[in-house]
């Protein structure tokens, strides 16, 4: 019996009936030889963490655009925080931690440079709109590995696609990631907003401050405990208790009004919107400036192909490309011999 088979037997014997067993996966679009050591979900986790798209998350904005300081969240640190919260919850509920982690690590691979500001710009440009969860699926199915994709399992792709609030993941592990994403970004965004001087912790809604706790770590710990306890008392449903769901809604509304809207209405937003539009128009007019692997797809779907390129950019690469294309180069002073 291989190490993988022992792990699969352990899952059947030890995990909850709610858990998705790796041996029961609906599989991949393209058949792949089994690994003797890793389960199918562990392989997906590794494929995601070794991808170029995952590494680029390090230099993509979470909330604050080009922040001055080393302690603000990036899209990568947010992803890691979601993965850790989700693994803790899955472990407590005896769900499949490997599946949970794979979904969490891949859920934001399709995010644009400059966070939701960049996403909004592409959403206005493309006829059918742009949604980062759908783009994340394009990344793992079409764009990574020189166009071959990562060939992930159905369960991981479903969790990535459906991590937004309006969606419903097919697995309980996907539902855990969906809620963990909210727990992470709302509490860590509060921390970054305080660091940026946008809000004072004392100004948070009284319900959030008194019930959830005074610091991000205390609030996260409270929310994780609440979710686990409520789910254990209400099997077949991954959720916070109704009263805490209401408090989270109040905190979310407060953040949109005082933090997210503050960012969205800043003068930087209009600059980024204009930059994304100009880059899009440039590459549509000069497709030969795209990487060769993307040039081949321009005849099939030019707008989506250009959007794929721009969405994959890091903040600094987008700024570099814009500068090289639209900003004049300084005159070089010839050296005197």
Q: What does it look like?
A:
It contains 16 helices and no strands. α5 (97-106) crosses α8 (154-161), α5 (97-106) crosses α9 (172-195) and α9 (172-195) packs antiparallel against α11 (216-233). The mean pLDDT is 91. The chain has 337 residues and is an all-alpha fold. The protein has helices at 3-14, 40-49, 52-56, 75-92, 97-106, 115-125, 132-143, 154-161, 172-195, 206-212, 216-233, 242-264, 267-285, 292-295, 302-312, 315-326.
Quick description:
With 337 residues, the protein is mainly alpha-helical. Helices cover 61% and strands 0% of the residues.
**Secondary-structure element series:** HHHHHHHHHHHHHHHH
Low-confidence stretches: none
Number of strands: 0
In terms of DSSP E residues, the strand content is under 5%
Work out the oligomeric state of the chains in this entry.
single chain
The percentage helix is 55-70%
Distance between the termini: 76 Å
C-alpha-based Rg, rounded = 22 Å
Biggest sheet statistics: none
Which word captures the global form?
Answer: flat
Distinct helical segment count: 16
Give average pLDDT, whole number.
91
SS class: mainly alpha
Topology:
Elements: H1 3-14, H2 40-49, H3 52-56, H4 75-92, H5 97-106, H6 115-125, H7 132-143, H8 154-161, H9 172-195, H10 206-212, H11 216-233, H12 242-264, H13 267-285, H14 292-295, H15 302-312, H16 315-326
């Amino acid at each position: 019996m291989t190490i993988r088979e022992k792990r699969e037997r352990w899952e059947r014997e030890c995990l909850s009936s709610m858990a998705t067993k790796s041996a029961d996966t609906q599989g991949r679009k393209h058949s792949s030889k089994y690994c003797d050591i890793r389960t199918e979900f562990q392989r997906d986790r590794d494929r995601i963490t070794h991808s170029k798209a995952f590494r680029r998350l390090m230099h993509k904005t979470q909330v604050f655009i080009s922040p001055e300081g080393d302690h603000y969240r990036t899209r990568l640190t947010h992803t890691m925080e979601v993965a850790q919260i989700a693994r803790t919850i899955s472990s407590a509920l005896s769900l499949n931690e490997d599946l949970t982690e794979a979904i969490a690590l891949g859920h934001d691979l399709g995010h644009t440079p400059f966070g939701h500001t960049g996403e909004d710009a592409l959403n206005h440009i493309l006829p059918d709109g742009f949604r980062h969860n759908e783009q994340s699926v394009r990344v793992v199915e079409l764009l990574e590995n020189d166009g071959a994709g990562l060939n992930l399992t159905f369960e991981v792709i479903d969790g990535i696609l459906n991590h937004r609030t309006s969606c419903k993941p097919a697995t309980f592990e996907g539902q855990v990631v969906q809620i963990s994403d909210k727990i992470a970004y709302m509490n860590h965004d509060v921390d970054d907003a305080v660091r940026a001087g946008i809000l004072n912790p004392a100004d948070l809604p009284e319900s959030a401050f008194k019930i959830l706790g005074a610091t991000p770590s205390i609030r996260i710990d409270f929310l994780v405990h609440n979710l686990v306890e409520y789910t254990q008392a209400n099997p077949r449903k991954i959720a916070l208790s109704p009263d805490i769901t209401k408090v989270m809604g109040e905190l979310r509304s407060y953040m949109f009004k005082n933090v997210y809207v503050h960012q969205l209405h800043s003068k930087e937003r209009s600059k980024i919107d204009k930059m994304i539009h100009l880059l899009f128009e440039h590459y549509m007019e000069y497709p030969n400036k795209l990487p060769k692997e993307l040039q081949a797809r321009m005849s099939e779907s030019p707008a989506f192909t250009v959007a794929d390129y721009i969405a994959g950019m890091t903040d600094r690469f987008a700024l570099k490309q814009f500068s090289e294309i639209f900003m004049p180069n300084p005159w070089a002073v010839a050296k005197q011999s």
